[in-house]
Amino acid sequence: MVRAAHAVSHHALQARALTSSNVVIDSPKQRYLAVCERVEVDGVTSSQISVFDLRTAPLFQKMRTLTNPVRPSNGKASDIIGCAFSGDSKFLACQTGRPDWTVMIWHWFQSRVICSVEVPARVSRVTFNPVDSSQICTSGPSHFRLWRVMDEALRPFPPFAGVKGTEHIVDHDWCVLCSWPQDHAQLTCCACAVV
Q: The CATH number of the domain where 140 resides is what?
């Protein structure tokens, strides 16, 4: 995976006016690789996600380029600072940085944004529920929220009991609990503690 990411990044730097790539994420079945990039063309900077097919080694064919449609009031595109594939690899969640902190869900095969929402706090991680692709979670300093994709919109769940808005959330992840007749996913988070 690391060699593939390096080869893709090296190939991307040679092929385009790529100024930086800050996040590289593989799909759950390690078939696809998403690279969050900042590109400058004719003096205009934009951010995008390039999705590569890892089964086409050694050239790693680029399947899609998803351009950030969000333009803040200052006209500059926010960097895409994180992304995650859904468990079935059909969807891609991404988050932009300041000043807007927008979370978007892409149907990346169709190069279409399904829904997006501005989060009123800094977001440092976005993940899909591995069992239910209609649920995502976002976290960051003073932020921890579960969302559901419904009617082409992201709808927030009620805040978690026991999680204060002032707590510094370091990270979160999903744990799949195997049970019969259906698997379930449980959300866990890590908060900073003062010892």
A: 2.130.10.10
